[in-house]
Amino acid sequence: MLKVKDLEVKFNRLPVLSNVDFELAKGESLAVIGPNGSGKTTLLRALMRIIPFEGIVEWSSEAKIAYVPQRIDLEKNLPLTIQDFLLSKIKLLRLGEQELGRVLKLVNLPLTIVGQKLGLLSAGQFQRTTIAFALIGSPNVILFDEPTAEVDLPGEEQIYDTIHRLQDEQQITLIIVSHDLSLVFRYATKVVCVNRQMLCYGEPKEILTTDQLHQLYGVRGFYHHDHLRNN
Amino acid sequence: MTILEITNISLIAIASGLVGTFALMRRMVLAADSVSHIALPGLGIAILFKINPLIGGAAALLLGALLIWFLENKTTLNTDVIIGVVFSASLAVGSLLTSGEELIEALFGQSRAGTNFELLAGLISAILIIAFILLFKEKLTISLVSPELAKVTGINTERLSLYFLLIFALTIILGLKFLGVLLVGSLIIVPAAVGRNLGGSINSALLISALTGALSVFVGYFISSAYQLTFGPIVISVATVLFLLSLLKK
Hints:
By secondary structure, chain A is an alpha/beta fold. Chain A has helices at 40-47, 82-92, 98-106, 123-135, 153-170, 181-187, 204-207, 210-217, and strands at residues 2-11, 14-24, 29-33, 54-59, 65-68, 141-145, 173-177, 190-194, 198-202. Chain A is globular, with a radius of gyration of 18 Å. Chain A starts with a strand and ends in a 14-residue tail after the last helix. Chain B has eleven helices and no strands. The longest helix of chain B is centred in the last third of the chain and has 42 residues, at 157-198. Chain B is globular and about 50 Å long. Chain B starts with a helix and ends with a helix.
């Protein structure tokens, strides 16, 4: 599905991310881990080709890519509802309005909520809305940037459940940026760790050793099931 | 003023309301006020060379919009900062070039009837602006929520900002004659603020601000002709009263 070779991203001629090499097959889920400011989001942006980069990012011709960004801060009284937001993409893709009901159902958002303003949604509801937005048009690749940042714990579980239910039902290839190593263990088939450059790549059980994590985060004593979200 | 002219100005007000709704959400409120001042040196130069001042104003505005877009893309400065600099420079140069009664008219607008050419150009442009907003509503909405999401959805956000800026400048040009440099921004801001206050969704916000604009023009026309007052300031005063009324909702 995806082949990345010698990927390098520079801001103002300074490399912020380099030596990224990995491959991803259809239906796999890749976790991208690394400390804050390590270039995880930059990697996603390069994969989506919305920032300039050097090297090779090659998607297979069948790839239909969608993206779920980190929490977006919107003004509370912005006159934009869930329906306005979702229907915009549905109309752009020239799909029928039944697509709205379909994606809302996939993320468990009730139809009664579609008239709510985006700025008034809870973090969890907003995240579901952005996932629903991504699902419009049935993509087969979804890139998630910290899908559960700022969502409380039960909400977080729900969102991961939703994501992996979708993966099972729709054979979606996933790339997830996350701080949460326990989730990486539970769901990812492959892991890429970055800190300004790619430090490791492989299956979770070989990657998430204490030594590797030490090298990545520079701190000893993190166990596999620790939450590293707030570090 | 003829019926045709009132229709023309109402259409301009509707166009301003629609553009304003998105301008407000894109945090371009002050831009509306400042960008209009860029027209002043153009008006001054046109009066100096005895050509139609509106053509001079339009040329200056389009140049200004392109300059802002260029600086926005080539520097890391905020749009507000860029518009602030370009606007103060324009006002300084403009007031040196224009003088006396002409300056007053350029600043506050005039009630005199326009030429047939001005009328026709106004009608066509207003329809063009309304069509643009209705056609690009979806793209504008998505890029408003997140430019990044818009890009992944296949929207060319840089081109969209340029289009919007040009449409924004065109809207200002249309209002320039009867509202003047100082008040034309208000026709974009005030009705849109009413739409923002009362609108529960993007469509209702667009509809309410368009209607507020048109209503302000109609009521403004009757008040200004009944009491022999300058048209522009009355229109904006009416819009402001409607805004104050919209605050009662909460």
